[in-house]
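The data are set out underneath:

___
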Amino acid sequence: MNLIQFWNQALQKYPNRNEVKVQIDEAAITFPDLLTKTSAFRLTNGMVENLVSLIGDLVLKHPNYNLRVPIGIYLFHNYPQQQPAIYLLPKQNIHIVRPNCPFIKGRGQVQIPYLINWKPIDHNLVTLIQNLVETFSKNPPIIMKNKDFGTTNNNQNFNLKKIVAKTITKTIQKPKTKKELLIEKIKKRLAELNEENEKIIEELSSEQLQLEKNQEKISSGIQSLQLQTNNYNVLSEKVENLDKTLTEWIETNKSKSLDNIDPDQILIPIDILSKQMLELYARGCAIDDTLYYLNKLLQNGNISVTNYLKKIRSLSNEEFMTIELAGKVFRIQQQALSILY
């Protein structure tokens, strides 16, 4: 899971997800030993929620030693309106929680004044963790287990201050310089930025590929439109020529008498298919007329029913064949026109 997917899933139930992400990023950069996670957290009503959390060690400030305090900071879904919950996370056989520590309640819950007086507008995670470091540095809440004493209470009269001093002496570590801490923060931030940039580049590459496909479709569409435009111009020119010819014919024959016009001279087919279609149309009209007059003869009793039915059957067969042949001729004409234009 990359960083973007992690944030989208982790902050899904947070109304103030942008502010939460900003504060988490600042805290993780300022305190690189705290890692951002999602952790199961049991609420006071017994329900378990997955909360964004900072889990890791706080390095206490002291001129003579470094003591690491393992803690967990859990952000509730309505953060920052509600203060976070902080718990010590001592490691078994390594740490002992100091008894009667003034800011440790119950099972390791941390309560410091900054957290008790939490104000969403004025307080934030970085300042909270800084207060934790200062408070723990003055009064460490845990000590390292002493091998001499173990985990038993065989010696009830031991001096707690001596154990703390001895444990602190054993855990002395060379403190990191500000330059080293800054380098660690920069490296971590650069790694996060690199991962985010890789995700952005991947998304942009996908968008670029889609744009190229869309460009191809647009180019193909433009070519198709140009072809249709050319065909339209050709057809438009032909229609104009035909219209011009018809207009001239009308002007020429406007003054002529209609009585002397032969219809056969007006409708002259220019090819075999047109001639065949005209003949089929005429045959169909003749059949319709014959059927009409047969009905009249039957009504007037001038023809017997037997002869009437014979004629009707014969004409129906002829009409069916005429219609089918006309349809076939029409389809051939349309096919020829589509090839031509």
